Amino acid sequence: MKTLFRRGHALADPAAQLRVLSGPPPRGVDDGADARPPGPAADFNAALAAAELPSLAAAALDTLQVNVGKLCNMTCAHCHVDAGPDRKAENMSAATADAVLELLKVSGAGTLDLTGGAPEMNPQFRRMVRTARDLGRHVIDRCNLTILTAKGYKDLPVFLAQQGVEIVASLPCYTAENCDAQRGDGAFMKSVKALRLLNGLGYGSDPALPLTLVYNPVGPSLPPPQGKLEADYKTRLAEDFGVQFTRLFTITNMPIARYLDHLLETGKYGTYMEKLTAAFNPAAVAGLMCRTTLSVNWDGALSDCDFNQMLSLPLANADAAGPRPRNVHDAPAAELLDRVLNRPIVTGPHCFGCTAGAGSGCTGAIVDAAGA
């Protein structure tokens, strides 16, 4: 699969994605000839108001999530980043990495969450890991697993273990057929090989080396209950491959970039959006990641979350003090931090993806299946 960017696809432009998300859902092949005319896009803020909840606002900053670039050794079908081997130009520079690390230092945020693309392919990755660990911060590497066995990166598992980095790794199924359908032929067995290497270093058994796997549905459906699926994963991976891991996160597919293209191509976009909005769970709102996370793009641009970042939705523009900084280079770290705390959060129809069912975010399900 080629990236939308390489194909010159209209949806490579975040503005085009926003036009789809903000407009009436097109009638798809699943809707049938007698389906009602499509209505307007669902209003997330209206859903909050109907549930007697206030508009979203950021609270304390617990996590600085940094997308260091769109370069990746894979082109997964569900990727909301549209990452791939051809995205070499969109990679964080040393100067921007410096600004991010200074912001991490003054913010007091306990976690540096590094993502991509394959974040390990960025030249600043190891320096950022070392600096954050020297500051006493928890570091997460959002890893696709296959990079750990790729030429030029085979020393990464040892480096990550020595630094005590938590690995959060995508593995959309415990069977090769379903996993390869999303991630490409052979991806599953390469992932299993990487998991065995990590297990050999203590990942998944040593409490200091947590290994988290991430499930997302293969089709346009919500994830099953996280606890039950985790038990299934642990049984199957242990019995079939001798692999162990710490925990499982379930994450809902977001209607962004390549997954949005897939929904439109298969005529399932309208059906999927209706499913997300119908499953809106008010109990998930309090745990939304945007409330305690600040997202930084490879060029330093600031957003409320990784999904807003991919849609090029910047922070809310102004507060009582004037225009709000929207890039790590816009102001000294301490001043920038003061201006971005307690900000209103920019929302849109895609936000229903984080509040559907048990809720979803970078730390998996927000509430249990009963909504408690």
Descriptive account of the structure:
By secondary structure, the protein is of the alpha/beta class. It has one domain: Aldolase class I (TIM Barrel, Alpha-Beta Barrel), CATH 3.20.20. 34% of the residues lie in helices and 11% in strands. It is built from 14 helices and ten strands. It has helices spanning 4-7, 14-22, 44-50, 94-107, 125-134, 156-163, 176-183, 187-200, 226-241, 257-265, 269-278, 306-310, 333-340, 352-355; strands at residues 63-67, 111-115, 138-143, 166-170, 211-215, 247-250, 293-296, 302-303, 318-319, 322-323. The strands form two sheets. The chain has an eight-stranded mixed β-sheet. The protein has a two-stranded antiparallel ribbon with strand order 9-10. It starts with a helix and ends in a 17-residue tail after the last helix.
Explain the layout of strands and helices.
Elements: H1 4-7, H2 14-22, H3 44-50, E1 63-67, H4 94-107, E2 111-115, H5 125-134, E3 138-143, H6 156-163, E4 166-170, H7 176-183, H8 187-200, E5 211-215, H9 226-241, E6 247-250, H10 257-265, H11 269-278, E7 293-296, E8 302-303, H12 306-310, E9 318-319, E10 322-323, H13 333-340, H14 352-355
Parallel strand pairs: 1-2, 1-7, 2-3, 3-4, 4-5, 5-6
Antiparallel strand pairs: 7-8, 9-10
Helix pairs in contact: 4-13
Organism: Alienimonas californiensis
Region (Disordered): 16-40
Domain Radical SAM core: 66-199
